[in-house]
Specification:
alpha+beta; three-stranded antiparallel β-sheet; 10 strands; 28% helix
Amino acid sequence: MNNFKTLFVVFALLIVAGGAYFLGRNQVNLSKITQSPTQSPNPAANWKTYIDSQAHYSFKYPQSWPLSKIPVSKGCDLCLEGVSFSEQYDFSSEDKTLAVILVFKEGWVKDVKTINDYINFLKTEPTNVNISKTTVDGEVAVSYKLSGGIPPLPIIEYVTTKNGLWYILRLVDSTETNKNRETNIGIFNQILSTFKFTN
C-alpha cells in the first residue's frame, strides 16, 4: 500500500511537471506569435491605375479623386499632356486642392537640359522656396514650393526628366488656410509613391 502511495505521488508530480512544461512552452510560442510584426494594409491596393502610352508613365489614384485630361493648347508645340485629379474639386470653395501632372517636350524652358539646369532656373525667382533634390521612380528630381503670389499656389511641386520629356507633378491649394491640406498632402504623397515610368 505504501508503494502504491509513493507511485501515485510520483505519477502526480510527473503530470504536474509535464503540464507546467507544456504551459510554459506554449506561452513562449504565443509570445513569439504576438511579437511578430503585422503588415499594414496598402492604401493604394484598390485604387484605379492611369497609364499613358504617349508620355510613358503610370500612377494609381483613389476613386474619390476623379481624373480628367487637360486639353493640350493648340499653340503649345512643346506641351504633350496634362492630367488633373482631386477630391470633389469645387471652384467656389476655399478648401479646394487640385493635383496636376503635366508633361512637356525638351525645350519647354529655354537653356534647361538637366535637373541641375532647372534648379538654377528656379533659384532666379525668390518666390521658389524649399528647393531640394529628390527622386521620382528612381530618376533625379527637384521639389519646391511657390511662396506668395495669387492663389491657387503649388503646395509642393516635383519636376523630373526622362527620355527627352519633362514631368511636373504638382499639388495646388486655393488658399494657405485650406483645412484639408494635410490630408490631401498625405494622399498626394501616396499617389506619388505609385508613379512609374513605363519605358
